[in-house]
Design goal:
The structure is a homodimer of 135-residue chains. The first copy, chain A, is an alpha+beta fold. Helices cover 30% and strands 27% of the residues of chain A. The first copy, chain A, is built from 4 helices and 6 strands; from the N terminus they run ααβααβββββ. The radius of gyration of chain A is 16 Å and the shape is globular. Chain A starts with a helix and ends with a strand. Chains A and B meet through β5 and β6 of A and β5 and β6 of B. β6 (120-131) of chain A pairs antiparallel with β6 (120-131) of chain B. The structure holds a DNA duplex (30 and 30 nucleotides).
Chain lengths: 135, 135
DNA sequence: TTTGTTTTTGCAACATACTTGCAAATATAC
DNA sequence: GTATATTTGCAAGTATGTTGCAAAAACAAA
């Protein structure tokens, strides 16, 4: 059984053609991808199916969301053991101002912060903008 | 001359009715506001005028952007000396998972990060999710 | 305080991102 | 192979953001 089917089965998700194709695409991409990217690449799939599949993958901890300033949500495959109970891969993301690609910086954990009295932190997002290795 | 007019004049922006109302609203709000919030509150203003005004205020360093996981851009008044040449108020933002409001945590600077070889950071966004003081 | 110039606004139309309901199709378990 | 529950595709709708252009408003200077 291939990797994608194992990932789906482990989350009790049916191995449908759409899911296998979308997951394969996500795994093959070193950068975070937007819905539009999936749609362009897998053009035979319905837009709504792609939205729903990404949403399902999020819930099941297969992928995580990265929000940048463009308004379009991007997604990347989780590197560690995430599941329906939560995401456990709090790492920094890097967005290149030249190529505009977002990548996970898995080697760097998000540093903790001393918040003012009364604020209880749960999780966080840290996005660094700059010029990436490749550019 | 009122505060809002001084702010506009200092940036060489004409003191129009729309700008004065939108800026007053932004200043009166302790949380980050979305375009939709402005539209609901100042319902006599045209949608496009609000978009353009927020965009102008961004360029002139009057407000800054906060991106969260909802896809809708939010804005908050800059606390320090920002201008057309750039924003200089790199602070942490906090989004409450109960009331869903975003506020600036002006007292905490974004901690620096040691990026892998080859990455050149320029600026960053750090958003912490959790339960706020009020909730 | 009127006039001329430049900026801003409002409208129409468009573009992109995302959601919901429902019937038909498909995956899985038996 | 059949029953059942899940998933998909289509249609339609909502939310968010943009662009071009003519009319209106702000400002400066006579």
């Amino acid at each position: 059984m291939q990797e994608v089917q194992q990932i789906l089965k482990a989350r009790n998700l049916r191995s449908t053609q759409s899911r296998k194709e979308i997951l394969t695409y996500l795994l093959s991409n070193k950068y975070a991808v937007a819905h539009a990217d999936v749609e362009k690449t897998l053009s035979e799939l319905d837009r709504v199916t792609i939205y729903r599949t990404l949403s399902t993958f999020m819930e099941k901890g297969i992928i995580h969301q990265v929000s940048d300033d463009t308004g379009a949500t991007k997604y990347a495959v989780c590197s560690h053991q995430c599941d329906s109970l939560g995401h456990h891969d709090e790492h920094v993301h890097f967005k290149c101002v030249k190529c505009e690609q977002i990548q996970c910086i898995d080697t760097v954990e998000i540093p903790d912060i001393d918040l003012p009295e009364g604020f209880r932190p749960l999780y966080s997002n840290y996005l660094i903008y700059g010029v990436c290795k490749e550019c």
